[in-house]
Amino acid sequence: MTSGVQRTDHAALVRTVQSVWATELGVPADSDDDFFALGGTSLAAARIVGAMRARGVNTTFNVLMRHPSPARFATAILDGDGPARMSLPHVEDGAAPPISVQQEAIWFLEELRADNTAYQNLAVVELPDRIDGARLADALTALVARHSLLRTSFPTRRGRPVLLERADPVVHLDTVDLSAMTAAERERWIRDLGRRPVDRTEPGLLRWTLAELGDGGQILILVEHHFLHDGWSLGRLTTELAHIYRTGSSDGLPALPHRYADYAVWQRMWLDTEDAAVSRSFWADLLADPVGPLCLVDDARRPADFTFTGDTFHDRLPAAVVAAANSCARSLRTTTFVVLMTAFAAVVGGIGGSPDFNLGSMLRNRRVPGTEDILGMFVNTIALPIRGWPTRSMRDLTTELAEILTTGLDHQEMPFPRVAQALPRVRDSSRNPHFQVCFSMHDYPDLRAEWAPGRRAELRYPSNGGAKFDLDVVLVPDPNGYTVLWRFCTPLLSGTATRAIATAFHTAVRALASSPDAPMAAVLGDIVPAQLR
């Protein structure tokens, strides 16, 4: 029984589901109420699945999407409609296994360009109150002791990078006084800090800087290599650090029976299984019909080799846009994220003049029991086929993307580099050969860590001058809506052009949501400015 509960009392499980839904959705839920009609979002679904797992019920986002009422959800759980049993091995200390496939792809890109900082994460914790530097150092030491990946280096052995753990924690914490700087000077200093290369071959791929500001406040700056990082890991990292600082102990944090090295070994074993072959075929079949690249700018402006250099524009999704997307999602019985993704696809397709293209996105990839609380790069890239969007309706394309994503969650363990091996080979060093634009969302329940009782810190994401794709858009949800990170490749796009794309996206969401059955190109009309096309 994959559900983790005994098939004894369906009614009791329904009551549990109702209680969880009421807590996470903020409204009472009857047994036959519809998740989408109650205002369910992908973020709420992730919280519901997490709450069920905390109660010993093993289920997934996919199961909830396919059975969106408390009664149907409970039935599916009891019928075993959940993830197949997957278990991580326990790797011996000192084994130095090969890195994961996700890490390997980044390692290859960085070997090609030593100045590539696109895979170093830069974040700033806006502390709500002043904190004590010595106490912070103690909390960081406890955090590094808790997570073996933070004590790991990645040297090469026989030409292949491996995970090499060490027992003693290495903490990189600097303090700096930025109080004499203007805000603009401070941001340039932070950007330069994020550009300093992180040595993968030495432990401590995570650097912290506690900075004093002119108003007596403080910020905590984090620079970490992507080998340690994905969006979920960032949430775990900052939440756990704040917990240890606040309480003086790691007591109360989830036990960690496994570590990232266990996952890396499990992944290599799983890739040789029949399940992996099925998953690889699923993603490869979606992309079986080759399409040309999506060109947001004239190719005459494109360097011969992709530079991995860029900037970030921070946007706030207007309340009217969020309301329109939420309403459309309820009407189409899908999530707000899929509605926003569909509108975004239409906008960038209109700019590029491409009826057919591939759109990148990300899946969390933490279904395997034991991975939920481990730090590291688990997230898997996916490519979604956008075909014939100009003559299709919002309803039609949204429904198709929702189905692909829902089914794809059953195949989220497959790393994209292995999918790419099954696709026609494209030799083009000027761009990502499979997709050029990416649209994804942070799905950690709440990135605002609690540093003192009732006092939460905001996270922000300055640019370090790197870019992974031509355009990489990330939604960061919070209780009041969405911050949107527009990360763009500067040889191709300017800040002005990217802001114009964001404005067109806002307008497109509202227009398409109000006319979900009309051809999308007809609805967009002149929404995409002529100078962007």
Give a brief rundown of this model.
By secondary structure, the protein is α+β, with helices and mostly antiparallel strands. It has helices spanning 10-25, 42-54, 61-66, 70-78, 101-112, 133-146, 183-195, 231-247, 260-270, 274-286, 319-332, 336-352, 394-408, 416-420, 495-514, 520-524, and strands at 120-126, 152-153, 156-157, 160-161, 164-165, 172-177, 206-212, 218-225, 310-316, 356-363, 380-387, 437-441, 450-452, 455-456, 458-460, 471-478, 481-489.
Question: Descriptors for this entry?
Answer:
single chain, 533 residues, alpha+beta, Non-ribosomal Peptide Synthetase Peptidyl Carrier Protein, Chain A, Chloramphenicol Acetyltransferase, five-stranded mixed β-sheet, four-stranded mixed β-sheet, 16 helices, 38% helix, globular
Fold topology:
Layout: H1 10-25, H2 42-54, H3 61-66, H4 70-78, H5 101-112, E1 120-126, H6 133-146, E2 152-153, E3 156-157, E4 160-161, E5 164-165, E6 172-177, H7 183-195, E7 206-212, E8 218-225, H8 231-247, H9 260-270, H10 274-286, E9 310-316, H11 319-332, H12 336-352, E10 356-363, E11 380-387, H13 394-408, H14 416-420, E12 437-441, E13 450-452, E14 455-456, E15 458-460, E16 471-478, E17 481-489, H15 495-514, H16 520-524
GO molecular function: catalytic activity; phosphopantetheine binding
Pfam families: Condensation (PF00668), PP-binding (PF00550)
Protein name: Carrier domain-containing protein
Molecular structure report:
With 533 residues, the protein is an alpha+beta fold. The chain folds into three domains: 10-78, Non-ribosomal Peptide Synthetase Peptidyl Carrier Protein, Chain A (Orthogonal Bundle); 101-247, 2-Layer Sandwich (Chloramphenicol Acetyltransferase), CATH 3.30.559.10; 262-447 and 464-532, Chloramphenicol Acetyltransferase. Helix content is 38%, strand content 17%. It is built from 16 helices and 17 strands. It has helices at residues 10-25, 42-54, 61-66, 70-78, 101-112, 133-146, 183-195, 231-247, 260-270, 274-286, 319-332, 336-352, 394-408, 416-420, 495-514, 520-524, and strands at 120-126, 152-153, 156-157, 160-161, 164-165, 172-177, 206-212, 218-225, 310-316, 356-363, 380-387, 437-441, 450-452, 455-456, 458-460, 471-478, 481-489. The strands form six sheets. A five-stranded mixed sheet has the order 6-7-8-1-15, sandwiched between helices. Strand 3 and strand 4 (160-161) form a beta hairpin. Helix 11 packs across helix 15 (495-514). It is globular, with a radius of gyration of 23 Å. The protein starts with 9 loop residues before the first helix and ends in a 9-residue tail after the last helix. Residues 1-7 have low confidence and may be disordered. Residues 8-81 form the Carrier domain. Pfam families: Condensation (PF00668), PP-binding (PF00550). GO terms for molecular function: catalytic activity; phosphopantetheine binding.
